[in-house]
Design the sequence.
């Protein structure tokens, strides 16, 4: 069995994007299996480390607790602080980033 570190590196960036079109490209689309497996692996890590989910529309949100998410059949529900609920699926996710939100740079366009 692979170590968790090897698996974490493998799934750090799950979907590759053509930066000009901002759309997932053909064979690089995140499959339902990859989506579910990745979320399960990230949520099972001990100690838990927050992850960031980036949607195709550019929005990002941080999953900061392993029990705040439920996933089944390529769809997931995340209950954030204040009871805010986010529903997302493998088709709406651009990437899952193995890092807390405060460590990431903004993806704002350059002027």
Sequence:
């Amino acid at each position: 069995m692979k170590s968790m570190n090897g698996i974490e590196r493998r799934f750090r960036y799950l979907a590759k994007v053509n930066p000009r079109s901002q759309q997932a490209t053909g064979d690089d689309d995140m499959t339902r299996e990859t989506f579910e497996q990745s979320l399960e692996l990230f949520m099972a890590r001990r100690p838990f480390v927050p992850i960031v989910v980036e949607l195709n529309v550019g929005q990002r949100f941080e999953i900061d607790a392993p029990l705040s998410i439920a996933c089944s059949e390529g769809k997931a529900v995340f209950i954030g602080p204040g009871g805010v609920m986010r529903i997302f699926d493998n088709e709406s996710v651009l990437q899952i980033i193995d890092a807390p939100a405060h460590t990431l740079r903004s993806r704002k366009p350059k002027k």
In short: The chain is about 20% helix and 30% strand. Helices lie at 4-10, 32-44.
